[in-house]
Amino acid sequence: MSKINTKPLSGFMELKPAEQILFDKIKKTIEENYKLFGFIPMDNPLIERKEVLFAKAGGETETQIYELEKGDEKLALRFDLTVPLARYVADKYGELTFPFKRYQIAKVYRGERPQAGRFREFYQADIDIIGNENLPLSYDAEVIAIAIKIFQDLNLDATVRINNRKLFNGLFEFLNLSEKAESLMQIIDKLEKVGEEKIREYFLDEGLGESEISKIFEFLKIRKVEGLEKIKIENGIFEEGVKEVKEVFENLKALNISEEKFLLDTSIARGLGYYTGTIYETRLNKYPEFGSVCSGGRYENLASEYIDKKLPGVGISIGLSRLFDQLLKKGVIEPKEASYTKILILPLSENEKEFSLNLLSKIRAEKIPAEIDLDFDRKMQKRAKYAEKLKIPFVLFVGEDEVKDNIFSLKNFNTGEKIENLDFRKMLELLV
Amino acid sequence: MSKINTKPLSGFMELKPAEQILFDKIKKTIEENYKLFGFIPMDNPLIERKEVLFAKAGGETETQIYELEKGDEKLALRFDLTVPLARYVADKYGELTFPFKRYQIAKVYRGERPQAGRFREFYQADIDIIGNENLPLSYDAEVIAIAIKIFQDLNLDATVRINNRKLFNGLFEFLNLSEKAESLMQIIDKLEKVGEEKIREYFLDEGLGESEISKIFEFLKIRKVEGLEKIKIENGIFEEGVKEVKEVFENLKALNISEEKFLLDTSIARGLGYYTGTIYETRLNKYPEFGSVCSGGRYENLASEYIDKKLPGVGISIGLSRLFDQLLKKGVIEPKEASYTKILILPLSENEKEFSLNLLSKIRAEKIPAEIDLDFDRKMQKRAKYAEKLKIPFVLFVGEDEVKDNIFSLKNFNTGEKIENLDFRKMLELLV
Q: Distance between the two ends of chain B, CA-based, in angstroms?
């Protein structure tokens, strides 16, 4: 036995066949919805120039970048899908039609320390809508609508929480705390994790007074749009934020989206300075411990590092690998199909080979996935085992009679049932 | 303007939106056929341990591997899809059902010097059928059938050339040239490129006599199975090869495959020692200059470097990125669709917004890709331009009358035609 280690690398997801089929199904559901909403595919290289990635990385991300060297070029693997999008839009600015709506479902790389639930290679499923100079607010609702539709199609009870960074910016300006905005936002981000008492302590450490703290908490508890209108914060930016939230909610209702699928949550902050308007997080209501499974928001300028054009955008990202892994481990989803094949043809002997191959080609011509086993050296029981293991629903034994009469009997391997006396057409009907 | 270079790296394909839609369509055609023939998806990591890759690389390939380093691990990017398959099968041997039929359409990496038509990141579209201990010859025809079906579906006139390594091995044994087999095979590989005269010189350089050379050329000109039976080569291995070729051809006929789609070509050798039986190359008949667009063959043992099990297999690989690039540059294929969207809704003013969003949600509920533009600050002509540029077939203007009467007029942007007086159902019929 060789000593080469064939185990998958830690932090790299490697699925068994039935799991892969399930993963592909979920991926397809996401992709079909992205197309339904008018998004165009993108599939740019996994490798970028180092300088492209480092221009936008920063912080912890920068230390996680996988670098490559070959010849004179300093290259690295992308750590998200946004930076390559920004580079792409900057490079092809003159050739694109705006608003540019692209989707991409692809792998990204982060060389993190291996830890449970963290991947070093993982799929992200992103959409972004990029405007040239400006982008109407209506797209902020579009992006929420698609997230809601996807989780509905996946049979996952999800709620999108909506907030707006302008509410925070207005609030902090109103309280004369604008200089501390960044660190206050990071504190608020921890609210759900550490609780109100701890947050109050952090606020005190930041030098906030009781009246400021209580105003912030009053704000953070708002869960209805009307609440935003009642709280007394006289500030232009805050009012702009309220107007935006109202319009997003109006549009969602006009899009026929059930009101239990989205809510205002003033406590979500989404970390650092990137977002400038609407922000989103999505929770699975039965599994809050998964955290946000789909997040995003509105940003002012996609590609300022690469091009002197103002390119505002709004987007969301589903952490597909992580979501799949969590759903699988929790038993929420379960691999069922182990093959796409609908029928396995088993000729009894070499005599039925030609007839069976012919039949196979006719079944496939009807777009029905089909296989044949011509391994006459093995016992029939062993040959049929293949269908059982892969849960192929039907098995067709072909012997002298079938060849003579063109009449078939199917065995349903799921139910054990035998369906007899089928002509070719009737057999096809059972298979589709 | 920033100095960061946003151009795609040389050797890395980056498509414009309409090209990407076309690429995805071709990729989907390949994938649907792989499923139709009973193959299961695989999607393992792009990154492997260095030792896994180097155990099977060798030669030029080894120098092309992109290496990565992060922490203690020595990692690298895969250079093909076969090595990761071998590692996967070795690792999950006990959990797989054999014959294991997997497909994978994914990117691989080779750090070549940039040159026309060569990619450093490219898609391969592979299938392999792996047996446990043995694998019936019938699968060799299956693999050809699928290649033929794919090129038919892509409207590309292709012919699969079939040969068998046992014919070469038998011929060389018969001529007492077995020791020179490897180098003779490499000479034969060059036949099409350099011509018969040059090959004759190479043979002479190898020390071959006139009678040996003329026997080899007699063999290399055979294009019919009957020819194999007429040539006088009394050798067991050769006869085995003839038997195999005959069976493969028999099976292809039984699978209803038109005889002009495949032929025996004794001059294809497929390089080095990996293949042991049937070998294939596929040419596009109108574009022989593309070389082989789909190649593969039968091998004795997939994963001997990783596991002490005999795992014979047969497979093919389509060089998808290269094929796409060649077809595009030659003008054989042309990007037509610039969007998946079927209809763009254009409300005339804010007054029709709610109604239009509602309509949009109903159209999408019918699985018809649809978009809306709510950018009332721009002139209508500019808003409609989006549909024109993306070749969205229909535009629906929504004004007071539409809201009042629920009767719609569609403008077909391809033909300029206006279709009037449609109720919602009739409008849907036009869109599907």
A: 45
- Residue A110's closest chain B neighbor by CA? B70
Whether cis (ω within 30° of 0) applies to the bond prior to A99 is yes
Say yes or no: ipTM exceeds 0.90: yes
CATH topology of domain B343-431: Rossmann fold (3.40.50)
pLDDT tens, B368-404? 999 999 999 999 999 999 999 999 999 999 999 999 9
Segments in chain A below pLDDT 50 = 1
Under a CB-based contact definition with an 8 Å cutoff, are residues B403 and B397 in contact? no
Report chain B residues whose CB lies below 8 A from the CB of A54. none
Task: Quote the CA–CA distance of B361 and A145 in Å, as a whole number.
Answer: 9
Pairing of the two strands B67-70 and B73-77: antiparallel
Using alpha carbons only, give the angle B400, B402, B403 rounded to the nearest 5 degrees.
Answer: 65
> In which band, very low, low, confident or very high, does the pLDDT at B226 lie, cut at 50, 70 and 90?
very high
Q: How far apart (Å, rounded) are the C-alpha atoms in residues A89 and B12?
A: 17
pLDDT tens for each residue of A278-331: 999 999 999 999 999 999 999 999 999 999 999 999 999 999 999 999 999 999
CB contacts of A7 in chain B (<8 Å) are 91
CA distance B389 to B383: 11
Tell me the two tokens of residue B399. Answer: 């004004």
Interface of A with B in 125-154 (CB under 8 A): 136, 138, 145, 149
- CATH 3.20.20.70 assigned to B17-329: no
- Which residues 6+ apart lie within 8 Å of B376 measured at CB? B349, B350
Question: In whole angstroms, what separates CA B284 from the centre of its chain?
Answer: 13
The answer to whether residue B386 neighbours chain A at the CB level (below 8 Å) is yes
Distance CA B262, CA B257 (A): 9
Kindly list the domain boundaries of chain A, sorted by start residue.
17-329, 343-431
- Residue type at position B228: L
Pair A181, A168: CB distance under 8 Å: yes
Using only the alpha carbons of chain A, give its radius of gyration. 28
For residue B418, give the DSSP letter: E
What does the pLDDT read at residue B272? 65
How far, in Å, CA of B26 to CA of B330, rounded? 16
> B47 pLDDT exceeds 90?
yes
- Cβ atoms within 10 A of the Cβ of A419, count? 15
Spatial neighbors of B157 by CB under 8 A, at least 6 apart, are: B151, B284, B285, B286
Place of tokens 């939230």: A245
Which residues fall within 8 angstroms of residue A114, CB to CB, at 6 or more apart? A10, A11, A120
Give the minimum alpha-carbon distance from B117 to chain A in angstroms, rounded to a whole number: 16
Residue A138 CB partners (closer than 8 Å, separation 6+): A247, A251, B372, B374, B375
Residue A122 contacts by C-beta under 8 Å, 6 or more apart in sequence?
A13, A107, A108, A110, A319, A320, A321, A322
Query: What residues of A are in contact with residue B74 (Cβ under 8 Å)?
Result: none
Residue A251 to residue B357, Cβ atoms within 8 A: yes
Amino acid at B82: T
Let me know: does B163 contact B275? Beta carbons within 8 Å: no
Q: Which residues of A touch B255 (CB under 8 A)?
A: 357-358, 360-361
- Structure token digits, residue B100: 């294991």
Residues written for chain B = 432
What are the beta bridge partners of residue B52?
Answer: none
Which residues lie below 8 Å from residue B16, measured CB to CB, with a gap of 6+?
Answer: A92, A95, B335
Tokens matching residue A179: 């200089």
In chain B, positions 219-248, which contact chain A (CB-CB < 8 Å)? Answer: none
Contact residues, chain B, for A24 at CB < 8 Å? 41, 43
CA distance A376 to chain B (A): 9
- Structure token pair of residue B226: 């009957």
Quickly list H helices, B259-334: 320-329
